[in-house]
Amino acid sequence: MSDLRDEVDALLARRSLSDAQLRALERLQATAPGRAEDAPPGAADSDRDGTLQGRHRSPRRRPRPASARRLQLPRGTGRLAAAALLTLLLASALWLTLPAPDGDPARAIAREVADNHLQLKPLQFSASALDELRGDFSRLSFRLRDSALPALAELSLRGGRYCSIQGAPAAQFRLVDTGAEHTYTLYQARYEPERFGDMPRVAHGETPRLLRARGLSIRLWVEQDVLFALVAD
Predict the structure, then answer these.
(1) pLDDT over 50 (residue 62)
(2) Which domain holds residue 48?
């Protein structure tokens, strides 16, 4: 019986020693750098196997907080934002330097035909009557009209050329008075109210609108759905 008791005591002593060793091992693992739970899956198995893949595998990166991920921007976003800001600043500066529109299409037309009159570009067609020019202006989408304005009856036609008024195709005619002392330019374009605005109609008894631009006198009116502009020195 004493021999059996000695064997039991020896077994209990060995068991208590194993528990102490286990607790000591856990404390060492808790304080040692590079805990096993931080190692990538399979690293321990690879180390036990002694393979190169286990020894050289890089540690797994911890995921970044969601707030940090939201702050990340795609590469090159900063340069794109800077370019967009520069474009906005340039557009704002250009807008500030442009003259404010007066909202009156007639004034824009007067400035344009006055500039054309001062340039006095060479004639493309020579003629002394409008009928002689109708075939030359075949590219226009309207028929050239004779005007009933009395002032035009005293002027002589010299010829014409293609031009435009506010982007619309037009014809420009060169006229001179009886003594050939003054030069006039007459313009015709298809009348588009949305483009040219409201214009007086001679057939309704309305007087042509008189404006000044570039030191010149300009008369604007409508006859037979055609816009007329007469520029005088």
Answers:
(1) yes
(2) 2-56
